[in-house]
Write a structure and sequence with these properties.
The complex is a heterodimer of chains A (317) and B (353). Chain A has 317 residues and is an alpha/beta fold. Chain A has a single domain, classed as P-loop containing nucleotide triphosphate hydrolases (Rossmann fold). Helix content of chain A is 53%, strand content 17%. In chain A, strands 3-4-2-5-1-6-7-8 form an eight-stranded mixed sheet, with helices on both faces. In chain A, strand 6, helix 10 and strand 7 form a beta-alpha-beta unit. In chain A, helix 2 packs across helix 12, helix 4 crosses helix 7 and helix 7 packs across helix 8. Chain A starts with a helix and ends with a helix. Chain B is α/β, with parallel strands linked by helices and 353 residues long. Chain B has a domain of 225 residues: P-loop containing nucleotide triphosphate hydrolases (Rossmann fold, 3-Layer(aba) Sandwich). Chain B is 53% helix and 12% strand. Chain B has an eight-stranded mixed sheet with strand order 3-4-2-5-1-6-7-8, sandwiched between helices. In chain B, helix 14 links the parallel strand 7 and strand 8. In chain B, helix 7 crosses helix 8. The longest helix of chain B is centred in the last third of the chain and has 27 residues. Chain B is elongated. Classes of the chains: A alpha/beta (317), B alpha/beta (353). At the A-B interface, helix 5, helix 6, helix 8, helix 9 and helix 10 of A face helix 6, helix 8, helix 9, helix 10 and helix 11 of B.
């Protein structure tokens, strides 16, 4: 499949998955790939303390104000920002000339109470901002580093709940418009990220059904992160002749290490197969990198791997 | 040197925390097995176990009743899977003055989403369940696995958030023990409510008002309870076990969390460095021979694993000072996750059981 076509299937892409599977890294890799292909990308962080700014090579934390992380000669770019409910509420109220409400709510500390008392309002505010950005067409692609699975499902299901609970008023309209965006595959999709491990695969399968059935959002592919290509050299033990140059101690260690790695590969292969058997979604494999942490150099490497996977999808289809 | 289980042996409450994906659930269950072996009556509260682990513990579906886990130990072990909304239901039942009040709360359109969807609810409910189990005489120790939060402190802040909410004058106004309509609310409250109505629509505010009115008289019970949960979390007998993996990101998160715990006067009682690479030979990986063909490939695999093992050992030495006198146990990376009581026992062995 043509990578540009792939990346332009929807204006908003939520990158979701269990904590620690590499959502921020994947968000960064997709953003950088799209920018290298000439697209204007907005990478969005919803919670603080994510790895997204570091992966994009930005210093410090992201904020409401946009920061340009990458300018490609092709005309593509990566802009990054954080969208938090409180900031979104203030902006939303100001845009409706309800600045007085903002001041009143702030001075009474009621903002916190409102968001506690009216479930879904925080989520609708954040998604409403994303919807406005999507509508503005300022960016070709908005990639969202979504919160960990449970919270991501809450994020995607609460607008429908709020639209049902609020029988009128501007919030209901906002919630309805958000639901409209979420349920349109041409505007919004969810990309699940997982690891080739039992717990992560369990949670991914569960999340996939929740995203489609409960949230009504279209699923894109599944990214299998930290995927190790099976090593054919691990298939069998060394013969006595092959190991003859080794001391007994090292020969035993070589065999123990081989069995350890082969068993691990086996578990990973089984998990990837189980994922494929349960979820009829194409898989994109991102390689395990031998780096202590993810920075722009690793993200470039992953972006290239991602492009190769996407191009290979064509051959299969 | 004492191990993790030694320092936990006499504690009534063990809170297992750490970033998402570091293996908290397995470590919490292994601690429970280790303490049961030492003769303690243990209950472990898990949040979201892997299906096979949940199956092994007999808690495939969320239930409020702890299930006994059988095994070779002197004490006893029970496990319960947290279900935030049914814990919330139980909380309503306990504090409602009668069935009609409980029923009117449950019928409110806002209740379901409040009970299950609200950020922070699960965190608070985990702590609430912990408090409840600790208060019974059935267990010597309650081990709680914490929900995955990017900011692990949310957990400790949960009771405070609920208290702040209940004590807010807007909420107090709504909860005043007289039946009143929106119109009759105090002037200050209704100004704010009018502001909110402009934004979210009048009906939603009416629902919210009747929701809070249904709570009338319950808020004190709720607030008392949140206060008690908060005190339990801050009690010197409550032990925090920090779980991390030997990666730069996880360690950074752990050090950040430790610093914030310290600012509240709490120190982790122990730390677990999970998924460390085992070493297969006591030889410097750089001095291993280099060769071609299948021999060379397999030597490369050994070299890579030995380098990783040395890296992880250095990490253990490096993080020791972060936890001062608290013991740090390492748990070796297994090719497959612990999925039965026996597997948990092997992890417990490494924690000093």
């Amino acid at each position: 499949m043509d990578p540009v076509e792939f990346l332009r299937r929807s204006g908003v892409l939520f990158v979701a998955g269990k904590g620690g599977v590499g959502k921020s890294t994947t968000t960064a890799a997709i953003s950088v790939l799209a920018a290298r292909l000439g697209l204007r990308v907005l990478a969005v962080e919803l919670e603080g303390r994510s790895e997204l700014p570091r992966a994009l090579g930005l210093e410090g934390e992201l904020d409401w104000d946009e920061q340009v992380a990458l300018d490609d000669p092709s005309g593509g770019s990566v802009t990054a920002r954080r969208i938090r409910p409180d900031d979104a509420l203030v902006e939303w109220l100001r845009a409706r000339s309800l600045g007085a409400v903002v001041r009143r709510l702030r001075s009474s500390g009621a903002l916190e109470v409102v968001s506690f008392a009216i479930p879904g309002i925080r989520e609708v505010l954040v998604l409403g901002k994303l919807k406005a950005l999507e509508r503005s067409k300022e960016f070709d692609l908005i990639v969202v580093d979504a919160p960990a699975t449970g919270h991501a499902i809450t994020l995607l299901t609460s607008p429908a709940g709020l639209a049902a609970a609020a029988r009128g008023g501007p919030v209901r309209r906002n919630a309805e418009e958000v639901v409209e965006m979420l349920s349109d595959a041409a505007r919004c999709r969810v990309l699940l990220v997982t690891l080739p491990r039992e717990l992560a695969v369990d949670e991914t399968i569960e999340a996939a059904f929740e995203v489609e059935d409960r949230a009504g959002v279209a699923l894109s592919e599944v990214v299998v992160n930290q995927y190790r290509t099976p090593d054919p050299a691990l298939a069998r033990a060394l013969s006595a002749e092959e190991a003859s140059s080794l001391t007994g101690e090292v020969a035993d260690a070589v065999e123990a290490a081989r069995q350890f790695e082969a068993a691990r590969e086996d578990v990973e292969r089984c998990e990837v197969a189980r994922l494929a058997a349960t979820l009829p979604l194409p898989q994109l494999a991102l390689p395990a990198l031998d780096a202590p942490r993810i920075g722009p150099a690793q993200v470039e490497e992953l972006a290239t791997a991602l492009r190769d996977c996407i191009e290979a999808m064509d051959a299969v289809a | 040197m004492s191990g993790v289980l030694d320092v936990l042996a006499a504690r009534p409450v063990v809170v297992v925390c750490g970033a998402g994906g570091v293996g908290k659930t397995t470590v919490a269950a292994a601690i429970a097995v280790g303490l049961a072996r030492r003769g303690r009556r243990v209950c472990v509260v898990t949040v979201d176990p892997a299906r096979r682990l949940a199956g092994a513990l007999g808690i495939d579906s969320p239930s409020d009743v702890p299930v006994e886990v059988r095994g070779q130990w002197a004490g006893s072990m029970h496990a319960v899977q947290l279900h935030a909304s049914s814990t919330f239901d139980a909380l309503i039942d306990r504090h409602a003055s009668n069935d009609a009040q409980a029923e009117s709360i449950r019928r409110n359109p806002l209740y379901r989403s409040l009970a299950s969807a609200l950020g922070g609810t699960q965190e608070y409910m985990a702590m609430e369940r912990l408090y409840e189990l600790d208060a019974t005489d059935a267990y010597d120790v309650v081990v709680v696995d914490t929900p995955p939060t990017r900011n692990a402190l949310e957990l400790l802040d949960a009771p405070d958030r609920l208290l702040r909410f209940l004590e807010h004058r807007l909420v107090r106004g709504l909860l005043a023990p007289t039946r009143f309509s929106l119109r009759a609310a105090s002037a200050a409250t209704s100004t704010v409510l009018r502001g909110i109505s402009a934004v979210v629509g009048g009906e939603l505010v009416d629902d919210a008002v009747s929701f809070f009115q249904a709570f009338a008289g319950m808020q004190e019970g709720f607030a008392d309870r949140a206060g008690a949960v908060k005190r339990l979390l801050a009690a010197p007998t409550t032990a925090y076990v920090l779980v991390t993996t030997p990666t730069a990101d996880a360690l950074e998160e752990a050090s950040w969390f430790t610093a914030h715990l310290a600012s509240r006067g709490v120190q982790p009682a122990a730390a677990v460095l999970n998924r460390c690479q085992p070493s297969f030979v006591d030889v410097d990986p750089e001095s291993l021979p280099v060769a071609t063909g299948i021999l060379g490939s397999q030597l490369d695999v050994l070299r890579t694993l030995e380098r990783a093992a040395r890296h992880d050992t250095a990490m253990v030495a490096g993080i020791g000072p972060m936890f001062e006198s608290a013991p740090v146990s390492t748990v070796l990376l297994a090719t497959a996750p612990a999925r039965d009581v026996e597997g948990l026992g092997e992890v417990a062995d490494q924690l000093g059981a």
